[in-house]
Fold this protein.
Amino acid sequence: MGSTLIEKIIKNNTGIDAKAGDIVTVNVDRVMIHDIFIPFVADKFEEMGFKKLWDPDKVVLIYDHLVPASQVDDTRHFRKGNEFAAKYGMKNVHHSDGICHQLMTEAGYVKPGNVVFGTDSHTTTYGSVGAFSSGIGYTEMASILGTGKLWIKVPETIRVNINGKLPENVTSKDIILTLIGDLGADGATYKSLEFAGDTVENMSVASRMTISNMAIEAGAKCGLFSPDEKTAEYCNVMLDDTMKNLYGDEDADYCHVINYNAEDFVPVMACPSQVDKIRPVSEIKGTPIDQVFIGSCTNGRLEDLHNAAAILKGKKVAPFVKLIVTPASRKIYREAIADGTLSILSEAGAMITHPGCGLCCGRAGGILTDGERVVATNNRNFLGRMGTSKVEIYLASPITAAKCALAGKITD
Amino acid sequence: MDKFKGRVWLLGDDIDTDIIIPTEYLALKTVNDMAPYAFSPLRPELAGQIKEGDIIVAGKNFGCGSSREQAPEVIKALGIKAIIAKSYARIFFRNSINNGLLLIENPDLHDEIKEGDEIEVCVGQAVCANGKEYPISSLPENLLDILNAGGLVKAMRRLNGLED
């Protein structure tokens, strides 16, 4: 019998021919800690009695949720992080370069076939480049910092085959939202999602990142794509034989196989306040909105800004709508300045903010109040995430979000 | 810990980590500072009502959402002795075990009891509620090792020769 993609990654990492359900200890290639959790990781690490990091070069510390500080206590996290990094010889520290999940791939910390853990649930994002990556808590992170190892249960795999050409104005965001709606918010819990088919082969790495990023919203442990030439170029690696073999075998043991025709996808939204409450945009057209947010580790990449700019070019957002655009990283921000994208967005009426997690986690300018509605390109519409618990959050693609900003209401 | 009784607080499906403890309170210094805000987006009064030894009974996918370990920590800080849910999100599950918070899975209990009921838990065996017995399974060995050590911190202290 063949192997699933996750089984191959784990076999390469451990030397054990493990199958779904087996519990194995993996050797960690890289870890990511962000600003919210670094004080807790630091305290737990010392409480555990470790004197040094297992490998300082494999540890990446990224300030993104709290940058720049919006509450006075936030600065404690930076101070604690800086002290910990200096004390244990960490060089990979990013103080204001962008969102952790964007930087981990963009700055070359993650390669195809790696095993990576981060103190953030959206660590699943690096599945887009063929890495097994998943979120953990700060206590487990502290134990990895000391040992370089973590136990995991090899997950079962749901294979998702997508073939054909996506309709106009439909993107990978609509694919992953549709899948979450079909599976439910717990439909892939403890499982690996493995994506294949010519639609995903033709997709950019940026689009794949959107899908892997939201795999967790169906409960998945990871959301994996096979590395290809596009991955190699993005990660700045040559694909070796091991990487070329990172695909799910036809005769692997899949717990579930889902087949989609790309032509059948339509623009969709996740409606308040569950990520799996998916409706075609055409069915909720006309609902008035107060704000639009384009950004986050889900959809704050250059491709996303280009998609929004193509809709907004030469037009103005509805006068009462606040459009907030947050590039995912400094690199993206600079590229979008250089190619004129930010100028187009600004002329259309967008407020463009510094790179970071920003409004997605309700920790930056743009929070909303009771009865207000926002169309947002991020990954969660949970109660209270972007303001009070009576704010209605609709999740959508940057194309749909830009169209809504122009109309001042939900539209496709 | 083998056998205990507690009063039930009943919650629904998909209780996410932003409900358990919203992001805006995550930068407070200690979990005890955060605990009064637990469940505030859903039931602002709940944290003040929970007493030491109470039990949360919930639907499916409890703890979905972010990796914030403060979620099981604030629940523990409120005095909750155990959670019994239809299912759990994976990061919340790991975080709870690592912090010594007992999680139990049962598909039926949630739909057959009401808030305020007193139930009895026999760890690894069954939950007794209103005269009915609901079987529960025990955890895999590697997880029991962490729970029995008193959580992952203590397990690592033992590894580093700081505890017996």
The mean pLDDT of chain B is 93. The helical segments of chain B are 17-20, 31-34, 46-49, 70-77, 90-98, 109-112, 141-149, 152-159.
